[in-house]
């Protein structure tokens, strides 16, 4: 019985192998060639869109919405460029974002007058949030382009290029994010320790900072998720004793290679997601390692009343909730944000991925968008990462002129 079953499975496996030759050649992935008719909305019909939705090599796409003074709804988009903070806006969620209106709102002179400033280089993971009538851009930066002095690097178990990365906040000068300037407001207190991918988490009229952290100044890996309480969008009020780690990459799928517990085990890119029907709060975060195919999304649910308690969070331990799809040639799916269709009824995940399973050092990531739903138990039900074509978001076609 056992051997017959095994033989049957073998036959099935080799049959499947013969039928579906590989269509994706990782050796040809870079430089990327894009068929522009398959980037974002299909302009011939405006009824479908395909991934990616931009050809630009970016990470950490962050999407939100705002309403202009004239009452028009816009999507507002930002992402990691490394050198500056760029905002884009479009009335359509899925039109090719290469063509959207663009503004650069923060651009340090990293090799000139701003050299050595703690916010001058390696600018990562900007997000823009509307809180109490103003817009706040929260982002990660370093003074040294991730090349710390050798004697500092030597304090870490192996090395720690990002040891001097910290979190910063820019505040809008007005209520409209598109017409405002964004002067520097503050550096967020992370106790002079590694901090990247910080985001805001709002719960019961309180504001928190959740970010990727190390256990101490030179521990380097694993990268965990930490939480502190804020008194306003630019001020952390918790002291170091009150700072709490709410997630460590303790699951094998959060570790690269699979199951290796310390080096390259990562939790980062946290993002609040609230189920609008049930009010359940989640932190969807990135796990494993950004420059591998295994980068994926993990899920924490707030099940207690105090986000500052480790015990208030429940991790989805069964595996990634969103991950690579080798058949579609989508790898390293991570750092997501969330928005809704123009009519507000449908939910969308915006994430980055690579199109090669063997990413080179300078990985090429593009922004992608997919609809997701909710499970019966109120948890998000993410789709398989796909290229489409998909139906455009509800209410979008009506906006196309
Ligand atoms: C912002 O950074 C990106 C990536 O380096 C670059 O392509 C773009 O030209 C920069 N924009 C400005 C205005 O410097
Ligand atoms: C940290 O703040 C808490 C109050 O939130 C206080 O009880 C504690 O004494 C403080 N610890 C230190 C080391 O200052
Ligand atoms: C699709 O929308 C664009 C503008 O968003 C418009 O220029 C184009 O004519 C539309 N195409 C169709 C077939 O409606």
UniProtKB/TrEMBL annotation:
Gene3D superfamilies assigned: Glycosyl hydrolase domain, family 43
Presence of the UniProt keyword Signal in the record: yes
Family affiliation: Belongs to the glycosyl hydrolase 43 family.
InterPro entries assigned to the protein according to its UniProt record, in alphabetical order: Glyco_hydro_43 (IPR006710), Glyco_hydro_beta-prop_sf (IPR023296)
Protein name according to UniProt: Alpha-N-arab-like proteininofuranosidase
Origin: domain of life: Eukaryota
Signal peptide: 1-21
tRNA-binding in keyword set: no
TM segment ranges: none
Source organism (scientific name): Apiospora hydei
Keywords on record: Glycosidase, Hydrolase, Signal
């Amino acid at each position: 019985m056992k051997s017959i079953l095994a033989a049957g499975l073998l036959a099935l496996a080799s049959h499947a192998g013969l039928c579906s030759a590989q269509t994706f050649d990782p050796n040809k992935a870079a430089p990327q060639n894009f068929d522009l008719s398959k980037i974002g909305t299909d302009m011939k019909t405006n009824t479908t869109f395909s991934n990616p939705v931009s050809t630009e090599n970016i990470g950490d796409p962050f999407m939100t919405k705002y309403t202009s003074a004239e009452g028009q709804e816009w999507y507002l988009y930002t992402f990691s460029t490394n050198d500056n903070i760029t905002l884009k806006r479009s009335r359509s969620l899925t039109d090719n974002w290469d063509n959207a209106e663009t503004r650069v709102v923060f651009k340090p002179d990293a090799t000139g007058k701003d050299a050595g400033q703690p916010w001058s280089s390696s600018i990562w993971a900007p997000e823009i949030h509307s809180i109490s009538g103003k817009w706040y851009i929260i982002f990660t930066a370093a003074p040294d382009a991730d090349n710390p002095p050798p004697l500092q690097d030597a304090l870490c178990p192996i090395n720690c290029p990002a040891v001097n990365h910290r979190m910063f906040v820019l505040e809008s000068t007005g209520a409209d994010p598109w017409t405002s300037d964004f002067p520097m407001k503050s550096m967020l207190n992370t106790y002079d320790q590694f901090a990247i991918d910080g985001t805001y988490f709002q719960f019961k009229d309180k504001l928190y900072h959740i970010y990727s952290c190390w256990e101490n100044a030179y521990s380097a890996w694993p990268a965990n998720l930490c939480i502190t309480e804020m008194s306003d969008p630019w001020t952390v009020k918790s002291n170091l004793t009150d700072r709490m780690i709410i997630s460590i990459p303790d699951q094998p799928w959060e570790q690269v290679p699979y199951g290796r517990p310390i080096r390259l085990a990562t939790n980062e890119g946290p993002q609040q997601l609230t189920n609008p029907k049930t009010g359940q709060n989640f932190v969807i975060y990135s796990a494993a390692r950004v420059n591998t195919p295994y980068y994926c999304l993990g899920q924490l649910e707030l099940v207690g009343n105090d986000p500052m308690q480790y015990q208030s969070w429940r991790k989805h331990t069964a595996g990634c909730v969103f991950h690579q799809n080798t058949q579609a040639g989508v790898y390293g799916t991570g750092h997501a944000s969330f928005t809704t269709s123009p009519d507000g009824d449908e939910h969308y995940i915006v994430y980055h991925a690579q199109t090669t399973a063997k990413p080179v050092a300078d990985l090429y990531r593009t922004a992608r968008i997919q609809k997701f739903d909710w499970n019966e138990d109120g948890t998000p039900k993410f789709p398989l990462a796909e290229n489409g074509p998909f139906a455009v978001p509800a209410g979008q076609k009506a906006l196309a002129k």
